[in-house]
Design brief:
Layout (H helix, E strand, L loop, with lengths): L8 E5 L4 H14 L6 H14 L8 E2 L2 E4 L6 E11 L9 E10 L3 H17 L1 H9 L3 H12 L2
Parallel strand pairs: 1-4, 2-5, 3-5
Antiparallel strand pairs: 4-5
Length: about 150
């Protein structure tokens, strides 16, 4: 099972709150075999958010969590039509969500490696703009695959 998959990318979504995003991530993770607990994923994302906002700059958020109920590490992408209030660093609403779910046992290695790769990727203006302007799941997948394999 791949960390990045076209099936884990949803574009043109109509999600209206952070909680709905967490529910959508948990549902997708469970449906695609990355997790065996809808509620524990939501709880994990909520707990991580309570430690400090995962809202970055320019309409991007990186909610993430670790749990024993995550069976495989996965990256989940949601591109939303409208901005969602997120308490981001720049105060702007979020439209692009990159979520990382990691099994508890891989927390130190896999989690930190992928999270830092994603953070570095999103700091590169050209890559960030390509992701924000992507029109298809495949386009987003290709960008992520290339960046995560470097």
């Amino acid at each position: 099972m791949s960390i990045v998959s076209v099936e884990n990318i949803k574009i043109n979504q109509n999600i209206s709150s952070q909680q709905e995003v967490f529910e959508a991530i948990a549902r997708l993770a469970q449906d695609n075999g990355y997790s065996n607990s809808f509620s524990e994923i939501i709880e994990g994302l909520d707990q991580r958010e309570a430690e400090g906002s995962t809202g970055m700059m320019d309409g991007i958020a990186i909610p993430h969590c670790q749990s024993d109920r995550i069976t495989h590490p996965g990256v989940f992408i949601f591109q939303n039509k409208e901005g969602i209030e997120w308490q981001s660093m720049d105060g702007k609403p979020v439209k692009f969500i990159v979520s990382l779910l990691i099994p508890k046992g891989e927390a130190g290695t896999t989690h930190l490696k992928i999270l830092s790769t994603i953070a570095r990727m999103l700091m590169k203006e050209d890559i960030k703009n390509k992701l924000l302007q992507a029109n298809s799941r495949e386009e987003i997948y290709d960008i992520l695959k290339e960046q995560l394999s470097n």
